[in-house]
Write a structure and sequence with these properties.
By secondary structure, the chain is mainly alpha-helical. The protein has six helices and no strands. Helix 1 (2-16) runs antiparallel to helix 4 (70-97), helix 1 (2-16) runs parallel beside helix 5 and helix 4 (70-97) packs antiparallel against helix 5 (100-115). The relative contact order is 0.18.
Length: 131
């Protein structure tokens, strides 16, 4: 129950606030790379041989073949990866420090900071969510 609360408060809550917003700086670039890779693969041209090697966008490029908003799909995939990171971080801290409460507090502070748009978006103004 403690771990679920940490994942909800530290990972899901900050990300749900920006789930339907317009693409941000880095996720717009990742989404565009994923779209280019999907387009190239769909046309039978293979992985594009120009630009940077975009491994994460290549893994997620299949969302552009779905009949759903691809940016929301990419954000949901990223949310799953962030939830997995929060879970693993908690487990490592709990095993290292021997305290579930201490591990939960440290994980909550770290994951909330890593997932809150105010802390990660360089153009966000204090007190505003992204705009």
């Amino acid at each position: 129950m403690l771990l679920l609360s940490v994942i909800l408060a530290g990972t899901i809550f900050p990300r749900r606030m920006v789930l339907g917003y317009y693409p941000r700086t880095d996720e717009g670039a990742y989404g565009f790379s994923a779209q280019l890779i999907h387009h190239s693969l769909a046309n039978g041209n293979g992985i594009p041989d120009y630009g940077t090697l975009a491994f994460y966008p290549m893994l997620c490029s299949w969302v552009f073949s779905l009949d759903y908003n691809p940016m929301i799909s990419l954000r949901l995939i990223d949310l799953g990866a962030a939830m997995l990171m929060t879970f693993l971080f908690y487990r490592v801290l709990a095993k290292t420090c021997g305290s579930n409460t201490g591990a939960a507090l440290l994980t909550l502070a770290f994951s909330f900071t890593m997932n809150d748009i105010v802390f990660i978006e360089p153009f966000a103004k204090p007190g505003r969510i992204g705009f």
